[in-house]
Automatic annotation (TrEMBL):
PROSITE patterns per UniProt: HCY (PS50970)
Cofactor(s) needed by this chain: Zn(2+)
Name assigned to this protein: Homocysteine S-methyltransferase
Domain spans labelled Hcy-binding: 1-298
One MF annotation (Gene Ontology) recorded for this entry: S-adenosylmethionine-homocysteine S-methyltransferase activity
Record key words, sorted: Metal-binding, Methyltransferase, Transferase, Zinc
Pfam families linked: S-methyl_trans
Keyword Methyltransferase: yes
InterPro entries the record matches: BHMT-like (IPR017226), HCY_dom (IPR003726), HCY_dom_sf (IPR036589), Hcy_S-methyltransferase (IPR051486)
Enzyme class: transferase
Keyword Flavoprotein belongs to the record: no
Entry EC number(s): 2.1.1.10
Alphabetized SUPFAM superfamilies for the sequence: Homocysteine S-methyltransferase (SSF82282)
Length: 301
């Protein structure tokens, strides 16, 4: 249940990596979307694990549901559009079923890099225009906007052109939305494609649908630097959900261990609150255990 006495909403953690922790195989090209296809009950169970840990928000298992990804996985061309729509709608239905009460359902809109971009959500090297990216995102956003989700959650966005495209498509959909980006490792003030976050702040501040902007799937220090930079140029509420500090090697599809030391997520909770973060949680490799610790740290702040 959401707690109005807390200064922010608690996001969930890494859904895909938690599914792996539960014994599911997410090593294929569809990642967590494979479990969505094969064993929907596991998606419900994983959402419930995060709710039990104290999360207010469930981020749906739609991040990697794309036509291109499904084609690559062997879905016939004649069926792929219908399969994609069915899975997108099912991802929201499962989260709603898992919530069974006063929780927020955020429909995940993954970036182009998580589909045919093949892992480029961390550098934005797409070679596409904003118009091309908008066209690619349009149908998926339209489908998710036509579900029981409370908001659309465009996340792990590495490119300013994709930020521009998504802002336009989210406004077209007319549903409340959050947009979260990835940043350059070691310099959280810059989008992954090298653009200053000042430009991201300008784009989202002009949106009619985006209600919050944030940074995700980077180290705690980089995500904190990113939200601080955004706060300089926008009054929108901020979202922050770092990963465990490990780096995803999309070529070999393995996690590279983080360097020792560095700011820890739980210790950084007061810093995130001071920076103006209103949605706080974790991304890849952040477990229900850490979500509980985040909630407890916020309650004690």
């Amino acid at each position: 249940m959401t707690d109005p006495s807390l200064p922010c909403l608690i996001l969930d953690g890494g859904l895909g990596t938690h599914l792996a922790d539960r014994g599911n195989d997410v090593t294929g090209s569809l990642w967590s979307a494979q479990i969505l296809r094969d064993d929907p009950s596991e998606i419900v169970a994983a959402h419930r694990d995060f709710f039990a840990a104290g999360a207010d928000v469930a981020t749906t298992c739609s991040y990697e549901v794309t036509v291109g990804g499904l084609l690559h996985a062997g879905v016939p061309t004649a069926e792929v559009e219908d399969v994609a729509e069915s899975l997108l709608r099912q991802s929201v239905q499962l989260a709603v079923h898992a919530a069974d009460g006063d929780h927020v359902i955020a429909a995940s809109v993954g970036p182009y890099g998580a589909g045919p971009g093949q892992g480029t959500e961390y550098d934005g090297a797409y070679g596409l225009t904003a118009a091309q990216l908008a066209a690619w995102h349009r149908r998926r956003i339209g489908i998710l906007a036509d579900t029981g989700a409370d908001l659309l959650f465009a996340e792990t966005v590495p490119s300013v052109l994709e930020v521009e495209a998504l802002a336009g498509e989210l406004d077209r959909a007319g549903r409340p939305a959050v947009l979260s980006v990835t940043v350059t490792p070691g310099d959280g003030r810059m989008l992954s494609d090298g653009t200053d976050l000042q430009e991201v702040a300008a784009i989202v501040s002009g949106s009619t649908s985006i209600r919050a902007v944030g940074v995700n799937c980077g180290s705690v220090a980089d995500v904190l630097a990113g939200v601080r930079r955004l706060a300089e140029f926008t009054d929108l509420p901020l979202a922050a959900y770092p990963n465990s500090g490990e780096r995803w090697d999309h070529v070999n599809r393995v996690w590279v261990p983080r360097e020792t030391g560095g700011l820890g997520l739980i210790d950084a909770v007061p810093d995130f609150l001071e920076a103006g973060v209103h949605l706080l949680g974790g991304c890849c490799r952040v477990t229900p255990r850490e979500i509980t610790a985040i909630r407890e740290r916020i309650a004690d702040a």
